[in-house]
Specification:
The structure is a single chain. By secondary structure, the protein is of the alpha/beta class. The strands form 2 sheets. Strands 5-4-1-6-7-8 form a 6-stranded parallel beta sheet, sandwiched between helices. Strand 4, helix 6 and strand 5 form a beta-alpha-beta unit.
């Protein structure tokens, strides 16, 4: 890797760049209202980072039932997006700083592309993100490494030139299997103890420390 080439920095979206947990839980509760089988909040959070149809599968009775629930969930999410969405402090400042430093920035999420783009615009991140891989961008999804590799290919970067910052076990597994450095974001809904078994390369308590962490990674790997 050329020394002058900054690391590509890939991010998960929900629970990493945008604080969408209240929106996602409200969407789940609306979707399952009145149904005999429904997930707990903890069960739903556990599945965050995987595609919505996959998350719904254990609780549906047929493909048609799942399609109805997908539509119900996405309709509620769209209608309540701006009301229930929140921002994590410091995210935009850090994205701007990394962008100025020359890091190519990308998003890898299992969220549908329309909602992904809306979330990025909502927090003002769309100006900094060069590549955004959502559910509709690829045919294989996290925790498979395919979406991470797809983002790297679009950026023209190799796996040893990139980090993936994500809050869920699915992010860590996807990044590991793609061969990138994985950084567990501890400001999302998953705790350190939940993420430790997946052995992320690094843990990050606050996104404000990401630039200095990237400096340390660059120095370590240049030596």
């Amino acid at each position: 890797m050329a020394e002058s080439r900054p690391y590509a920095v890939l991010f998960d979206l929900d629970g990493t760049l945008i604080d969408s947990i209240a929106l996602l839980l409200a969407s789940m509760k609306h979707t399952f209202h009145g149904r005999p089988r429904q997930p707990t909040e903890a069960e739903w959070i556990e599945g965050l980072g995987t595609p919505l149809p996959k998350q719904l599968t254990p609780y549906v009775e047929s493909d048609e039932d799942r399609e109805r629930l997908v539509n119900r969930y996405r309709t509620f999410q769209l209608e309540n997006h701006d009301r229930l969405m929140a921002q994590y402090a410091g995210v935009i400042d850090i994205l701007a700083q990394l962008y100025q430093r020359g890091h190519p920035l990308g998003v890898v999420t299992s969220k549908g592309n329309m909602m992904m783009e809306r979330g990025l615009k909502f927090i003002g991140a769309d100006d900094y993100i060069e590549v955004a891989i959502g559910y509709d961008s690829v045919h294989i999804h996290k925790p498979d490494p395919y979406p991470v590799r797809a983002a790297l290919e679009k950026l023209g970067y190799e796996s040893n030139e990139a980090v993936f910052v994500g809050d869920s076990p699915h992010d860590i597994k996807s990044g590991h299997d793609a061969g990138v450095i994985t950084i567990a974001a501890l400001w999302g809904p998953f705790t350190r103890s939940q993420l430790e078994p997946y052995k992320p390369t690094y843990f990050l308590d606050t996104i404000k420390d990401l630039p200095s962490m990237l400096d340390r990674i660059s120095t370590k790997n240049a030596g």
